[in-house]
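INPUT
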Amino acid sequence: MGTNPSKQKTGKKILGIINALRKDEALGVTELSDRLNIAKSTAHYHLDTLHEEGYVVKDDSKYRLSLQFLRIGELTRSRVPIFETATEEVEKLAGRTNELAILAVEEQGMGVYLYKAAGENAIDIDAPIGRFAHLHNRAYGKAILSQLKEERVKSILDEHGLPETSAQTITDRDDLFNELEQIRTQGFAINREESIEGIHGIAVPILDNDGSILGGISIAGPSERLSVEKMTDDYADLLSRSQNIIELTVQHPEFQ
Amino acid sequence: MGTNPSKQKTGKKILGIINALRKDEALGVTELSDRLNIAKSTAHYHLDTLHEEGYVVKDDSKYRLSLQFLRIGELTRSRVPIFETATEEVEKLAGRTNELAILAVEEQGMGVYLYKAAGENAIDIDAPIGRFAHLHNRAYGKAILSQLKEERVKSILDEHGLPETSAQTITDRDDLFNELEQIRTQGFAINREESIEGIHGIAVPILDNDGSILGGISIAGPSERLSVEKMTDDYADLLSRSQNIIELTVQHPEFQ
DNA sequence: TTAATTCGTTCGGTTGAATCGAACGATTAT
DNA sequence: ATAATCGTTCGATTCAACCGAACGAATTAA
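OUTPUT
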């Protein structure tokens, strides 16, 4: 039957429409059918069901994602066990350090920012809530990796690699595993311009009572202000205190 | 062929799974198939595609919604034209009044909270970001309705009704239309315990340069503290100032 | 103003993906 | 140790997904 490029499950097609509407704010039926290589009538057919279910809305004859996603996103975030308590602690950390404080968790082998709190001098990094980022070149990412089984870490590295985003990025597996070992012994992870030039960070992992990793909290700022000494001497203790509070609250919810 | 209850589009089935996972945090294949009246193998089939595309994740053998929804939700919110500027103004309003300040927009005939800022004495109402709420019994909702064409308002009331959530809720269409007329003349909308007993609110609409409604901002608090006089004398002006700033920024983005 | 595109939408015939039930091994409860 | 329940796989059947054609509406070009 010649070339039939649209040999795809219906589910993937629906989610493909959602993905296309993530990239472009609003799309018409024809634009969408071109982009996904499906018939115009097929695109219309699926847009119609998405519209009926309230997942897309129509502006004139353009379709865009509805705010239902905002509700689902907030819901999903609120279900992360440490979210409530960790948010409070991250706010306090930002106030105490005047820097940027972050809460992040691992999902699907990537790191996801759940919450940011900006202190008075906080840098404004390009890290929107909900974005997925690699773990190997972030302070919180290395803190999280340090608490995963080696097998799991290897599987993550197989899947996502160790892309180089700055001259200091760790791109060698053995180097990373050595670093993770050091993080386990000292209790915190440090990022020396490994993600972005000029930016330092320090993070600690948050553990459940069974030792499984729940997420990480970190402080980030310009490398001039966040010297390695300042981070290890001052911020490691601040983070450790927050870490304790969060872990206690998660493991003993009756204290909350 | 006897009873076949699952006469449904595949798209609706996929979105039905997402909806089921909104209600319950994590579900297994069998639980989901029971809930949606589909075969176990069918539930598994769709969960698998959702998993492949990263929209659900597996904990052991339970499935739950992934944090991709958090990213999509944030993205969707950030695309609302007034969001950036209005957020700043809502923060200022909370600081100036020490009450709860809110930004909301209309979508699909309902109101959606986009942002909340809590002043020092702010009440903690059950209004999570992204939740859809009726428009007829909220200050911001009436402010928005007052700027829609009568035809559109009627269609919204047809679809969603005027449910009574307190003794003061406006449940009569004519009463509502009279109120909307008054709101248009005075420029702001007031909520006197129409949604929740003991809670007052005041809101102004935000308009585009073509006169179309973009959303509303409001201040809410206990009825003892927010007397009608206090709201009309003090808060109406505060809201009006924020309204002007937001409208100027939206209509002249070069000032931003 | 008119003509020509381009758009979203509808519809019916065709086909292949969605669906189910049965069966599997793994896990858990009894 | 046994029974029950779970997630997962697989093949046969069928019905929903899919396409292309055609429509009117809206926009653009002439």
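end of record. Chain A has two domains: 10-69, 79-255.
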